[in-house]
């Protein structure tokens, strides 16, 4: 009899543990969410794609692998391949399909109506549809702050941008960077050049060398090609790199002064939250300093080289961006 | 021009151009031997990728970019052997098998990178080695003599290739096998053996070209690092009309235009960047269209050798 009662209690306890024990963290979904992510480069590109992949991993860690499953398709630069893969994922019943790039907008617009219960998301972009989310990092905000640091730290008075292709994120980033430089020291020149490629790290390295030969002493650039430029900067002394998308200081620990970091976790979680509320798309999700999805991170190894006055004025500008007092402009026509 | 003299800019453009020409020189000169013997290898891009990976990985693990170069040459030669087996022994259609080899290498390099490393990091590469005396010559010194050794080596390979092709018995056999294989065969030249040697040499040099990208230029590796350079190298063999000097001119034209457009952009000269980045391609096509009137090609190019067919 007593044995029986203990057994029942143990079973009850176990049942409770099963029901509540794996105490769902904030916003963890009731049923397992399946996410597929497509990208033009790879999950280890140390830039745009990896930042999103790391975000997915962080959310999975928080929710548990039994609550969130995700798969990835890499090297989907070709929209035809991407379209086929997206359709396959949708057919397989994935809940959320992240097409991580501005170039996937049109293919999503075409496919999404066929799968009304599936949520699609892409970015950088702002055009949505009933089941398409557009995410939109306000890259210009961090760019502005990095531009200020560059302007205040440059000795030669010339800073160089190694851009990929003049579109989307890169336009916003470059535009913000220029404003930051102009605000901090209008005498400092910003030189912008593009490699014409998102992934050619060798070409980006060569462009960085040309910038440095032409006396630029602080460089920056976006997209995965930029890691090649960061590496080229690391070869020379007295020059620095400002990184964006993610913290690239592991690649050039003595040359990356500061980084703008994207926190995709919040974006992924808000898409999951929307779905839980029955909203499968139609939202334009921005990443900003105000909501904590963008972060300015100094390289701890080099932060001592940045004068306190510089950090103070940058931090003040950051607070002004957060409070809305300072509005970093975007180009009138551009900014896909 | 902001802090840099006009002369400095010109020196900068020419020095950058020479450096950019290096991987094309390696890959195109190797491909030239291959095509001269009658086999065109469209897998060059993929072999370069594998060479780039082998060079990077070896340098990363051993700390020696020299071993990296050797590994890249070895990997390139093995892939050349594979291409030779497919196209010479198995007599497969060369265009298709080359593309197949490229796809194979593209996938394999990505897979190996993921399995053995899985994150982007930097490796030890070659720094510049200034040639004593010559590097201090004004203007010419910084343009030609302040690079790493691989750049000099690529330039030296131009006359060496010319000599081998036109002044050695082996070179004569290569040319004979690529134009009149039946006749060469009757004279006792082992056509397939020569083709094997040339395709393997071409593979080894493509591997070397790949290693230049990782240990001579970028000092790191990322997926798809060649970004189409292998295909440009194949085109430059046609551009250079299968001669080392022509290939040198083609590589320099393409790379100088590339260097020029980089500098135009960096100096902020008002010029749409979209046009700037296609400039090298447009100029090369234009030069090809204007200059190459009489198109000469090894007559047996692309044709497998069958003794009984003669």
Give a short overview.
The complex is a heterodimer of chains A (336) and B (310). Chain A has 336 residues and is of the alpha/beta class. Chain A has helices at residues 2-21, 48-63, 79-91, 105-111, 139-153, 168-184, 201-213, 226-234, 264-276, 308-323; strands at 33-39, 68-73, 96-100, 119-123, 132-137, 158-163, 189-194, 218-220, 240-243, 256-262, 284-287, 294-298.
Description:
The complex is a heterodimer of chains A (336) and B (310). Chain A has 336 residues and is of the alpha/beta class. Chain A folds into 2 domains: 29-138 and 264-287, Response regulator (Rossmann fold); 139-262 and 293-323, Rossmann fold, CATH 3.40.50. Chain A is built from 10 helices and 12 strands. In chain A, the strands form 2 sheets. In chain A, strands 2-1-3-4-5-11 form a 6-stranded parallel β-sheet, sandwiched between helices. A 6-stranded mixed β-sheet of chain A has the order 7-6-8-9-10-12, sandwiched between helices. In chain A, helix 2 links the parallel strand 1 and strand 2. In chain A, helix 7 crosses helix 8. Chain A is globular and about 75 Å long. Chain B has a single domain, classed as ABC transporter involved in vitamin B12 uptake, BtuC (Orthogonal Bundle). Chain B has 12 helices and no strands. Helices cover 71% and strands 0% of the residues of chain B. Chains A and B meet through strand 7, helix 7 and helix 8 of A and helix 1, helix 9, helix 11 and helix 12 of B.
The class by helix and strand makeup of chain B works out as mainly alpha
Regarding CATH, which class of chain B? Mainly Alpha
CATH topology type of the largest domain in chain A: Rossmann fold
Number of strands of chain A: 12
Number of domains of chain A: 2
Q: Helicity level of chain A, as a percent range?
A: 40-55%
User: What name is given to the CATH topology of chain B?
Assistant: ABC transporter involved in vitamin B12 uptake, BtuC
Pair of chains with the largest interface and how many residues each contributes: A-B, 45 and 38 residues
- Helices and strands of chain B, in N-to-C order? HHHHHHHHHHHH
**SSE topology string of chain A:** HEHEHEHEEHEHEHEHEEHEEH
The biggest beta sheet of chain B is recorded as:
none
**Strand proportion of chain B:** under 5%
Counted by DSSP, the helix tally of chain B is 12
- Estimated helix fraction of chain B: over 70%
Unreliable spans of chain A: 16-26
Give the name of the CATH architecture of chain B. Orthogonal Bundle
Mean pLDDT of chain B: 93
Oligomeric assembly = heterodimer
Roughly how many Å apart are the termini of chain B?
65 Å
Tell me the number of structural domains of chain B: 1
């Amino acid at each position: 009899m007593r044995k029986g009662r203990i057994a029942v209690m143990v079973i009850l306890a176990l049942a409770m543990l099963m029901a509540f024990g794996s105490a769902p963290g904030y916003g963890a979904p009731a049923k397992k969410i399946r996410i597929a992510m497509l990208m033009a480069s790879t999950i280890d590109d140390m830039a745009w794609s990896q930042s999103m992949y790391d975000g997915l991993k962080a959310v999975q860690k928080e929710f548990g692998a039994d609550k969130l499953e995700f798969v990835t398709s890499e090297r989907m630069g070709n929209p035809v391949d991407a379209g086929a893969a997206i359709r396959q994922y949708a057919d397989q019943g994935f809940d959320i399909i992240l097409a991580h790039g501005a170039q996937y907008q049109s293919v999503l617009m075409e496919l999404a109506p066929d799968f009304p219960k599936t949520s699609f998301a892409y970015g950088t972009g702002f055009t949505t549809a009933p089941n398409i989310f557009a995410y939109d990092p306000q890259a210009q905000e961090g760019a502005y702050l990095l531009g200020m640091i560059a302007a205040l730290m440059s000795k030669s008075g010339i800073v160089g941008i190694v851009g990929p292709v003049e579109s989307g994120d890169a336009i916003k980033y470059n535009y913000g960077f220029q404003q930051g430089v102009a605000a901090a020291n209008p005498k400092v020149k910003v030189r912008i050049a593009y490699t014409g490629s998102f992934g050619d790290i060798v070409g980006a390295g060569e462009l960085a060398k040309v910038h440095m030969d032409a006396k630029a002493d602080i460089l920056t650039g976006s997209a995965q090609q930029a890691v090649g430029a960061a590496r080229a900067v690391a070869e020379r002394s007295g020059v620095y790199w400002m990184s964006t998308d993610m913290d690239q200081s592991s690649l050039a620990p003595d040359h990356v002064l500061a980084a703008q970091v994207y926190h995709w976790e919040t974006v992924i979680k808000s898409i999951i939250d929307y779905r839980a509320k029955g909203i499968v798309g139609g939202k334009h999700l921005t990443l900003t300093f105000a909501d904590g999805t963008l972060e300015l991170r100094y390289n701890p190894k080099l932060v001592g080289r940045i004068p306190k006055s510089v950090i103070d004025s940058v931090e003040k500008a950051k607070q002004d961006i957060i409070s809305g007092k300072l509005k970093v402009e975007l180009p009138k026509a551009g900014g896909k | 021009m902001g802090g840099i003299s006009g002369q400095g800019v010109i020196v900068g453009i020419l020095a950058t151009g020479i450096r950019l020409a290096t991987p094309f020189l390696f890959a195109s000169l190797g491909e030239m031997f291959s095509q001269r013997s009658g086999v065109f290898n469209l897998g060059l891009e993929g072999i370069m990728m594998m060479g780039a990976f082998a060079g990077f990985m070896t340098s990363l693990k051993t700390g020696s970019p020299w071993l990296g170069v050797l590994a890249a040459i070895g990997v390139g030669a093995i892939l050349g052997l594979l291409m030779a087996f497919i196209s010479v022994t198995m007599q497969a259609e060369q265009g298709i098998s080359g593309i197949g080899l490229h796809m194979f290498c593209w996938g394999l390099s990505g897979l190996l990178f993921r399995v053995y490393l899985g994150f982007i990091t930097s490796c030890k590469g070659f720094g510049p080695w200034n040639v004593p005396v010559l590097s201090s010559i004004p203007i010419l010194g910084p343009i030609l003599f302040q690079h790493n050794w691989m750049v000099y080596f690529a330039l030296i390979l131009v006359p060496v290739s010319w000599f081998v092709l036109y002044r050695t018995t082996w070179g004569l056999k290569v040319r004979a096998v690529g134009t009149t294989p039946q006749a060469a065969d009757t004279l006792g030249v082992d056509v397939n053996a020569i083709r094997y040697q040339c395709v393997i040499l071409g593979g080894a040099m493509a591997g070397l070209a790949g290693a230049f990208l990782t240990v001579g230029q970028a000092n790191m590796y990322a997926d798809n690092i060649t970004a189409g350079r292998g295909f440009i190298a194949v085109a430059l063999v046609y551009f250079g009309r299968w001669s080392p000097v022509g290939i040198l001119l083609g590589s320099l034209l393409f790379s100088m235009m590339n260097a020029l457009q980089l500098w135009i952009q960096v100096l902020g000269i008002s010029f749409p960047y979209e046009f700037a980045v296609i400039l090298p391609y447009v100029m090369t096509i234009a030069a090809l269209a204007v200059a190459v009137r009489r198109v000469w090609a090894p007559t047996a190019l692309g044709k497998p050798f069958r003794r009984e067919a003669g």
